[in-house]
């Protein structure tokens, strides 16, 4: 099964993780901007529209990658989800941001990453679904990875209805790329498909930390090995 469109293969491992927040685009980017502003304190940020017409243009617009996220790209989709991608060369999303969007803004979020090959990290996947009903944040997490040639996995929280029960019943949880994409699609998201995103207005929202601490170091695109 082909799990991703060609543009995501071309720019791999950049799309290894694309966080998701269940909120209208305007509400999502305002919440992200609020959280980044709070997180960095007196550190200056810039925010506003960036003109792009595809996910390929989003990936190609990055001038540098950093050890922690310093640029956040909030991207509308054709579904109730809004996508959040960042320029960290860890390509692992930003779970802390997702936590705050759920805990402080009561928005359902999914922080996830998946790779069948050892690139930035060992092959494996992680998935964390957070929601906030009346009694506080509810978390469902799944994690599996290959270590020393063997699969290792753990789970936290109660399963959600969209999970594949046959995977949970297996001796070893193997949430590979295909299983992850099927899982996300049952949740209404197809983040490795170009037609999931809504570029009809030709723009996304960008939040950038313009003066991060000296401890944050950079890599240029030439230092990233692209391709699936």
Descriptive report:
It is built from 6 helices and 11 strands. By secondary structure, the chain is an alpha+beta fold. The chain has one domain. It has a 9-stranded antiparallel sheet, covered by helices on one side. It has a two-stranded antiparallel ribbon with strand order 3-11. A hairpin with a 2-residue loop joins strand 8 and strand 9. Helix 2 packs across helix 4. The longest helix is centred in the N-terminal third of the chain and has 16 residues.
Overall shape: it is: globular
Whole-number mean pLDDT: 91
Radius of gyration: 17 Å
Approximately how much beta-strand content do the residues carry?
25-35%
The tally of beta strands, per DSSP, is: 11
Q: In oligomeric terms, what are we looking at?
A: single chain
Number of domains: 1
Q: Report the major sheet.
A: 9 strands, antiparallel
Residue runs with pLDDT of under 50 for 5 or more positions: none
- Sequence of strands across the biggest β-sheet: 2-10-4-5-1-6-7-8-9
Secondary-structure element pattern, one letter each: HEHEHEEEHEEEEHHEE
Terminus-to-terminus distance: 15 Å
Instruction: Name the structural class.
Output: alpha+beta
Number of helices: 6
Please give the share of residues in helix: 10-25%
């Amino acid at each position: 099964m082909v799990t991703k469109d060609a543009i995501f293969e071309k720019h791999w491992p950049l799309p290894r993780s694309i966080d998701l927040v269940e909120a209208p685009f305007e509400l999502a980017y305002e919440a992200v901007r609020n959280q980044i502003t709070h997180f960095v304190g007196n550190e200056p940020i810039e925010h506003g529209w960036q003109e792009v017409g595809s996910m390929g243009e989003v990936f190609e617009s990055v001038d540098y990658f950093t050890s922690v996220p310093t640029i956040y790209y909030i991207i509308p989709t054709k579904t109730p989800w809004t996508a959040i991608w960042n320029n960290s060369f860890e390509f692992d999303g930003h779970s802390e941001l997702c936590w705050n969007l759920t805990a402080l803004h009561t928005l359902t979020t999914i922080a996830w990453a998946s790779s069948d090959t050892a690139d930035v990290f060992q092959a494996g996947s992680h998935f964390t679904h957070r929601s906030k009903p009346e009694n506080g944040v509810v978390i469902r997490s799944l994690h599996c990875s290959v270590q020393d040639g063997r699969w290792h996995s753990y789970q936290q929280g109660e399963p959600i209805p969209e999970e594949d029960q046959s995977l949970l019943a297996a001796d070893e949880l193997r949430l590979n790329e295909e299983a992850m994409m099927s899982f996300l699609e049952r949740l209404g998201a197809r983040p490795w498909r170009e037609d999931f995103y809504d570029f009809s207005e030709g723009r996304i929202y960008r939040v950038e930390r313009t003066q991060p601490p000296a401890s944050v170091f950079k890599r240029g695109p030439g230092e990233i090995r692209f391709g699936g």
